[in-house]
């Protein structure tokens, strides 16, 4: 008797998950031996397992399963990153974070668009659409790197917070430029700024409210009746934070990150957990975040389209080199130097100039443009793949080495 199609599909998905977990566990051990961020090892494993090489994993980018893994995985990694930040440090560097996450995206996009126009020979509006797609840094990549490579607090927390907050700016600017490229209206600075303020405001409100509510339920002396179930509370609230903010047309990723910050700093609000329960929650969070990294970056590697990339390989590499070596340093210098309170050192500025990995969120934006048949979508997707590979394989791999050379590693 033949199995129904749904059962065969379920078996195939289970086999895929088993391959990801088995290979991911093995490469995580290898990455640890060589002291390389595991996201790099997962991405390489995905390249080898994907339909272009090993044919072991083939999950389509537009499938519901792929979107579920990317959304929930990115949310949980962001929650984990937010929980590791300290409000005391963020109070010191919030001006730099704010400027990097807003004006910084525009500066990066401006410089990169000129390089794309020159090297790719596309109309300037297409070059600008490409530049805005890859302008925001990627929290799903940066958070795990900084959890594994211990950098001095104010540098690590500035870069992680920037990556969490600038996805809203990147998405808003990308779709504003897309409207121009498709002839659907004029760009309005006022409307875009209002949209950004709305997304940020609702994201902060949803994340902060749910973070406080979760802290009460797991840490309050009188009302903390869910303390033993704190891992379940975090899973539930991560989903609620993302969907709640998204339902208000705000940044779900920002809401999840703020939720993590509030819960990670619950002692400031007068809440404290028993040591045993705190350790249980931290252990669960760390393991779940590791599994999410395996799934996200192995899948991201399997979905790199080498055939599409090859069409614009050399010109795309030239654009990404300008993106990495010119646009990012200019952005950091112009956005961080004016913050006189922090007094960033030259070594800190150099490190932040090198650290701007591209990953899941720019990849998702490129995928959306492909699905919409946007002008220049193929060249945008091609250069986005090149940017993801170059920044993760080069910048993430050298993070520990550069931090050591600049004296920014924590003892």
Q: How is this structure best described in words?
A:
The structure is a single chain. The protein is an all-alpha fold and 411 residues long. It has a single domain (5-405), classed as Up-down Bundle (Na+/H+ antiporter like fold), CATH 1.20.1530.20. It has 18 helices and no strands. It has helices at residues 5-34, 38-49, 64-84, 87-101, 103-120, 124-134, 139-148, 153-181, 189-219, 230-247, 252-264, 275-302, 306-311, 313-336, 346-354, 360-371, 377-396, 399-405. The model has no long low-confidence stretch (mean pLDDT 87).
Tally of domains: 1
How much beta, percentage-wise?
A: under 5%
Q: What structural category do the secondary elements indicate?
A: mainly alpha
CATH class: Mainly Alpha
Reported by name, the CATH topology is Na+/H+ antiporter like fold
The description of the largest β-sheet is: none
Query: What CATH architecture label applies?
Result: Up-down Bundle
Anisotropy-based shape: globular
Measured between the Cα atoms of the first and last residue, the distance is: 63 Å
Summed over residues and divided by their number, the pLDDT gives a mean of 87
Helix content: over 70%
Taking pLDDT < 50 over at least 5 consecutive residues as the criterion, the unreliable ranges are none
H/E order of the elements? HHHHHHHHHHHHHHHHHH
Number of helices: 18
Quick one: how many beta strands?
Answer: 0
Tell me the Rg in angstroms: 21 Å
């Amino acid at each position: 008797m033949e199995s129904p199609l749904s059962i065969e599909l379920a078996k195939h998905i289970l086999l895929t998950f088993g391959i990801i977990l088995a290979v991911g566990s093995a490469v995580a051990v290898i990455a640890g031996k060589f002291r390389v961020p595991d996201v790099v090892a997962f991405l390489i494993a995905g390249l080898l397992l994907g339909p272009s090489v090993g044919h072991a994993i083939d999950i389509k980018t537009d499938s519901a399963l792929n979107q579920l893994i990317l959304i929930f995985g990115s949310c949980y990694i962001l929650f984990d990153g937010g929980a590791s930040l300290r409000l005391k440090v963020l109070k010191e560097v919030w001006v730099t974070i704010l400027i990097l996450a807003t004006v910084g995206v525009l500066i990066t996009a401006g410089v990169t668009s000129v390089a794309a126009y020159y090297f790719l020979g596309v109309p300037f509006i297409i070059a600008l659409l490409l530049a805005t797609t890859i302008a925001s840094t990627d929290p799903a990549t940066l958070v795990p790197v900084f959890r594994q490579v211990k950098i001095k607090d104010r540098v690590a927390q500035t870069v992680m917070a920037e990556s969490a907050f600038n996805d809203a700016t990147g998405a808003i600017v990308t779709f504003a430029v897309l409207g121009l490229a498709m002839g659907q209206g004029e760009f309005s600075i006022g409307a875009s700024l209002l949209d950004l303020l709305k997304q940020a405001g609702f994201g902060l409100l949803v994340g902060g409210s749910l973070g406080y509510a979760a802290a009460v339920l797991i840490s309050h002396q009188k009302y903390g009746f869910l303390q033993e179930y704190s891992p379940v509370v975090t899973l539930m609230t991560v989903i609620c934070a993302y969907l709640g903010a998204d339902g208000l047309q705000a940044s779900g990723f920002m809401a999840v990150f703020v939720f993590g910050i509030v819960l990670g700093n619950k002692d400031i609000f007068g809440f404290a957990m028993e040591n045993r329960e705190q350790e249980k929650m931290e252990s669960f969070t760390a393991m779940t975040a590791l599994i999410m990294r395996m799934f996200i970056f192995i899948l991201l590697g399997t979905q790199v389209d080498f055939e599409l990339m090859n069409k614009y390989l050399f010109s795309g590499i030239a654009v990404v080199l300008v993106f990495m070596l010119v646009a990012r340093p200019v952005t950091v210098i112009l956005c961080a130097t004016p913050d006189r309170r922090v007094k960033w050192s030259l070594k800190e500025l150099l490190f932040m100039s090198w650290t701007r990995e591209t990953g899941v969120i720019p990849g998702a934006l490129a995928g959306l443009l492909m699905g919409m048949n946007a002008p220049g979508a193929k060249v945008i997707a091609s250069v986005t793949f090149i940017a993801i590979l170059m920044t993760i394989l080069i910048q993430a791999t050298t993070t520990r080495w550069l931090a050591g050379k600049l004296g920014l590693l924590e003892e």
